[in-house]
Amino acid sequence: MLSSPLVKQHFLRALMFTAKADALSSFERHFATIGWLVSNVKGIVLAEGSLIHPIPLLISLLFTVFFAIATILGRDIISGILTIFFIFISLTLYSIRPIIAVTKIDEKYIAIADPEEGYLNVLSFLKNIEGEIIEEKSFIDKGLPVPKLLESYTNELKKYYEKVQEQTRMERVAVVTQPTEVKVTRPTPLSSELANLMDEVSKWRNYLEKLEELRTQGKISEKAYEELKKEYLNKLKELEKKIEELQKSLGSSS
Q: Range of 236's domain?
């Protein structure tokens, strides 16, 4: 299990991402190279890092040995209780190490990791392979074995992803269908094709203005805003390039 028995509510980070190449093979090579213990069981790749708290573990082991000897020599009940306590602490500290589990589902990859060391290593790995996170969410650790955790979190993350996608789609529709007044002044010397392009530019600029208004009014999420703004700017850039090429063509033909 990924959780620590000392923590009542332990959170894990679940990520859904895409990659250009086979991320599972890359994952195995990457973490094996940096010294992690890597295993592949039925399509689930596990990577287990080194101890996060080696010094506290060593101190706990020393106390365990000390109180164990005191218990044997003095038959002291308190020393016996403390021995059991430090054995428990030692086992807990030994179990606290970064563990990452990754699997592939429907052309996407799901990874779960603890929110600190494991999560940071996942981000570093994705940067190396140029992977793209398409959704992520924190979940309470249910204390299940890794395969069950992946199955459970995959279903929850997919539902969350679909919900976010639907919300973004609805916001996109709301932006596009907002009534706008488009006033276009068509340069008379230009051809009808150029005039149509100018109409398109004016339309997308109005969409961009409306998008800014919706963001200011708090009627659209930041994620949807960024996606739509990027799309609109790319469209404007494409149209402006076509207009420039057409103007050059008209200039050379006149």
A: 178-242
